[in-house]
Amino acid sequence: MSLVGGVVARQCARSGFGFTTRTIASSARLSLAQPVPKEQPAEPSAKAPLVKEFKIYRWDPEQPEQKPRLQSYKVDLNQCGPMILDALIKIKNEMDPTLTFRRSCREGICGSCAMNIDGQNTLACLCRIDREASKDSKIYPLPHNVYLGPAALLHAYRWIADSRDSYGADRKEKLQNTFSLYRCHTILNCSRTCPKGLEPGTAIARIKLEMATN
Known about the structure:
single chain, 5 strands, alpha+beta, 36% helix, five-stranded mixed beta sheet
């Protein structure tokens, strides 16, 4: 220590200021020894429930005396996937295991989940849920229970259009009824929905043309 420094230190000690340096040093060591509390991350605010009502066609073939009905289910869209098929799976898994429907690939390829959703024939795996909660969604099976549907008529046309087929007249005769060919109103929902782009609506129109001209 230099001569000037020693003199200053002794004067400070005599005047009673010596404790100041020790107190500051002790406070500094104490603050360094104590851990700094970590800031707690803010908890994300939970989304308010967005509840939508689904009205689904129900019929039990084991109880044919009971008429078909629409059964209501309420689903929180914030806890559900974006597609109608997601809602159906959630209802079956969490609300009503008796709900039955077909599904397979979930990619719009197999066509297994075809059904009538809000008045349109489409695939449940490709149909997005309308997130307007005040508007319910109605889901029905495809209207193929009694009459031939687009897939069957498309298959029939493949044989009718084949010149090698010798049963064309018989096939056309079987289509002469109100539950087959002429239930088609040429809305072309089948062509729009067909996952393979096979244009069953066009095939049906060609069958009608052949039957009208022969």
